[in-house]
Amino acid sequence: MNKLVRDILLIVFGSMIYAFSLTFLVIPNHLAEGGIPGLSIILHYAFTWSPGITTFILNSAVLLIGYRVLPRRMVMMSILTIPLISFFIYITEGKVEPLGDPLGSAIFAGVFIGIGTGMIFRAGGSMGGSTLIAKMFHHNLGWDLTGTNFIIDSMIVASGLFVISPLNIMYTVIALYIGKKSTDFIVEGLDTKKAVSVISARAPEVADEIIKQLETSATVFKSYGGYSKESKDMVYVIINRYQVFRLKRIITSMDQEAFVIIHDVRDVFGGSFSWLPFK
């Protein structure tokens, strides 16, 4: 499938899932959400304004103000995403009754919001709203993107205290956390990788054993100890999380004095690794 067509389909279905999560789970159960859609929902609670129309107006205003300082691709993807999300919200708002369980609604809202958002991000799209505002502050004032985006979303959710109960705000925080994890799952995949650095006097032998038993590649570097002033070899290997225990056992059997560092890897591609979701 052509990459552009695939990306457009991901954005369409991601926007639909995101919007339906709001109109089926968030709004009927009097919860909130971050970003411009979250602000539109709060305005809906306060003044009964249409969240679909409000989302479109506010997102369009932000895009018009900031389009000159934003990357062209972000602007183009926002032009596609903003009307889609607003349209799907508009055609389904007010058509679903509350489930009667705000906590359960928050949990599943977070799951589906994260899936929709992850599909949009996976296609290289933008949600608009607070992301665009944070980008503008970053460009003009040098503010940190992630921190600014978090502050904006937190302020929007906190403003819901004036129109919904503190308990529902706490449920909203749960939904936001689950949504973040769901987004990470869609963007990064289930089989997360680990990067392992092994400093050992027997590094070449350790690398050979890792290659033999785990059937993966390994790289051996020259390293220099700043404290010991000694040169040693270092093995660098990427494995999946299920191989960590076996790797530790291999290293321990080869060199009990080896120094090992294990950390998460956000993404791996090329070589013997391939991306399975949405390929």
UniProtKB/TrEMBL annotation:
It comes from the Bacteria. InterPro entries: DUF2179, N-reg_PII/ATP_PRibTrfase_C, UPF0750_membrane, YitT. The chain crosses the membrane at residues 7-27, 47-67, 74-91, 103-121, 155-178. The keyword NAD does not apply. Keywords: Cell membrane, Membrane, Transmembrane, Transmembrane helix. It is a multi-pass membrane protein. Pfam families: DUF2179 (PF10035), YitT_membrane (PF02588). CDD domains: YitT_C. It is found in: Cell membrane. Residues 217-270 form the DUF2179 domain. This is YitT family protein.
